[in-house]
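Q: What does the assembly look like in three dimensions?
Context provided by user:
Components: two
Sequences:
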Amino acid sequence: MKQSYNLNINADATKNLSLLDSVKNKANRYLQQRSILQHLLRIVLYVILLTMAFIYLAPLLVMVMNSLKDVEEIRNGSLLALPQDPSLAAWSKAWGSACTGSTCEGIAPFFINSFKIVLPAVAISTILGALNGYVLSMWRFKGSDLFFGLLLFGCFIPFQVVLIPMAMTLGWLGLASSASGLILVHVIYGMAFTTLFFRNYYVGLPRELVSAAKIDGAGFFLIFWRIILPLSPPIIVVTVIWQFTQIWNDFLFGVVFSGADNLPVTVALNNLVNTSFGGKEYNVDMAAALLAALPTIVVYVFAGKYFVRGLSAGAVKGA
Amino acid sequence: MANQRRFTDMLADSMPKLVLAPSFLIVMVCIYGYILWTVALSFTKSRMLPQWKFVGFDQYDKLLNNDRWAVSSENLVVFGGLFIIICLVIGIGMAILLDQKIRQEGLLRTIYLYPMAISFIVTGTAWKWLLNPSMGIEKIVREWGFEDFTFDWLVNSEMVVFCLVIAAVWQSSGFVMALFLAGLRGVDSEMIKAAQLDGASMPTIYRRIILPSLKPVFFSAFVILSHIAIKSFDLVTALTGGGPGYSSDLPANFMYAHAFTRSQMGLGAASGVMMLGGVLAILIPYLYSELRGKKQ
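A: Here is the predicted structure of the complete assembly.
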């Protein structure tokens, strides 16, 4: 009895094993099919992503390629054709001798104008932002949050609603059409963003750092200098990059507030493209546009990580 | 001696306020003061120079009966609406695709985002050329053998506003993608695992769990995009110059033209105030919901 029982079990086990095998086979086939499907999906995924990458890159590639051709080749050939005889002639003309409205000195002088405006404006607005952010996070007082709210609103106003009074004020101050006037405008309307960046960063630092130093008798500036500033490099980088791109790329303030001898490069580029003196030199236009975009692209390529962080700091936390 | 001591103490106490004072002054004057100033100007008959002769709502009356203003605000609705929707769709879509453990994700992200580093003037110059029927896309496709292909939106006053949309989407959609990608990375992975154990499929998980938790990102992207749309002045200037005629003008271009080149300061001020009104209409509900969200 016992024996047969055992036998029975063995028989069951073999039956079960064969059942298990068939299930396993089915599962394997299913998994195989699934993995083929998943493979296909992955391929589709990569195709979509690469196509998008191509779409984003295409205008830049077309510009670079055609800035290396001469005008005849652009007129007669295809936009997508590689330059037959690549030359930097258009680049050197765009830099040094193309006409931008009334002068024909290329965009080089305006490039320098832009730097003369951007560097001080970035420096001053960053320092102001750091100090404001420090107060608004570590030295809050009654009304400081209200002030922060009022300042935040400044990030969002359309500048059209302050342009006329600003132009009149600059006129009274004797700063109309001057580089210092333009720097002032950029500092004023950039301050809201820089303050926001620093304030949001400092709020994340432990407040004990400051309260301990206060107990030890350290003053406002000593704490800033010794404790806060050494912790600030990440947010300084973000702010400087953000301000640099914003101010370099600005067109509105440039066209409204700058004078003939301190036009920023964006305004000069627009003049160059719209100067219809003689035939249209598309290759020179393209080279000039690339030159105007170069500083911010370089910053982006080398410090893109911080650039993204700035965008999302301003965006996600800010608003 | 004691007095002096008290004075330095007081100075130390009020140091934060002193540091903040210049910025406070600037904000009150150059933001709020100037807004009031512009509002005041919009009620005067100022032309090339300000004249403080108040004429009530005359300028607004003129503005609302001005065909160019009607065209530019209608353009803003079409441009802004399409720009925001397409950017959000592309941005969310690409963020989800990029979030599938993609090889070379960093490189792809860099490529999608670089247009954001470029000025709208440069973008406009590039697209002006690509969209030009006799130079750009139309010519290329015809060379491929499609002789009848037409793509002349840039010179077609009915369609030109869509050219603005194309260029602006090209420039800003990568940024929206970056915002959403950051958001996706912040979603609680435990929740997703739990849903997977319960047998939910990936599309359901995205629809029911991930996307709803990205609501704040969605909101801030919306606010930023609408802000870009309302301020788009340089893109129009570089891409179309407002043309053909004034068919692709946006309010920002209207304001600039009237206040600074056509000596219609009162009208320009009124249009600036209307633009602020537009921003507030979007911003106030947003801030309200943000503040309420924080209190809860």
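Follow-up: Chain A has two domains: 2-67, 89-317.
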